[in-house]
Amino acid sequence: MKNSSRLLSQHPAPVSLRVVIVGPSGLTNVEKESQRMALLLAERGYDVSCRLGFSGKGELVQSDLVIVLGGDGSILRTARWMGYSQTPVLGVNLGRLGFLAGCSQEEVPEVFDEIAAGRFHLVDHLMFECEVFRAGQSIHHELGLNETSIVAGQPFSMIEIGLHVDGKLATTYRGDGLIVSTPVGSTAYNLSAGGPIVRKDL
Prior knowledge:
Elements: E1 18-23, H1 28-43, E2 47-52, E3 65-70, H2 72-82, E4 89-93, E5 103-104, H3 108-117, E6 128-134, E7 137-144, E8 147-151, E9 159-165, E10 168-175, E11 177-181, H4 189-192
Parallel strand pairs: 1-2, 1-3, 3-4, 4-5
Antiparallel strand pairs: 6-7, 8-11, 9-10
C-alpha cells in the first residue's frame, strides 16, 4: 500500500494540510456537514476538497487526511475507494451507532486542535485483497477492510472449499460457505455466524 500523507503520529500537522471530505451523496445532513466542515478547515488554512459520492478514483487523490462523513459503512466504502493509496482516515459519525466512526460532529473542532498539535495516534488496520479466477482468468478483484466470503449459489447445497496458505493446502471445509475476516471485520458478519472476535495485533 502507498501512503502519500504527511500526517505523522506525535508530530504537529503540516500548515498546508491537504484534507479530502468524503461521504455518501444525496443525503442532506451529509451535504450540510461537508460544507460546514470545509469552511471550518479552510479558516484554519488547510487545503480542503469534497468528494461526496466517492467520485473518481480515490487512489489518485493526493491528501494527508480523509474525513469520512457517515457511519462504519462509509468508512468501509472509503477504504475500497482509496485502493492501494491508503490515507489516514477520521470518521465522523452522523447519528448512527459507529465503532469505526467514533468522532461526533460536535467533537470535530476539538479533534482538529489535537491533530494540529500532534496529539494523536495513527492506527494501522489489516486489509485483504480478493481475486476471483475462472478457467485461469481473473474475473473480479476487490480490496476490503471487513471481510470476504465464499458462498454456495442456489440451491445452496453443501460445497467443499480447500484453504491454501502460502500456496500450500492447510485444510478443507465442507459447508454452505466460508467467511474470511480481518480483525476489524471479526465483530461483524463473522461474529453473527459464530466466529471469534480477533484482536488487531494477532
